[in-house]
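Notes taken during the Thursday session

The instructor put the following on the board and asked us to keep it in front of us for the whole hour. The protein is Serine carboxypeptidase. We were told not to look anything up and to reason only from what is written here. First, the residues (83 in total):
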Amino acid sequence: MMYYGDADVVCNYFNGKKFIQTLGLKAVAPERPFYVGGQPGGTYTNYGRFHYVTVKGAGHMVPTDKPAVAAHILASFLFDKKF
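Then, after some discussion, the predicted structure tokens were revealed:
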């Protein structure tokens, strides 16, 4: 899993997407939104066992900026649950 805050000026999510392209991974489904507590959390793309996640409104320190969203994406990844 790779995750980025969409407001991160240190490691921007555009370069994360470019990196995934260099790996040659194929998306299982198109980019989709996910919600945490009924609020938009960001978007995710599933590449099989690999996930690319963008967190809405988070900067470089996603767990500090959006702790509930960070916990959600980590639990979803670790326990193989739907985003």
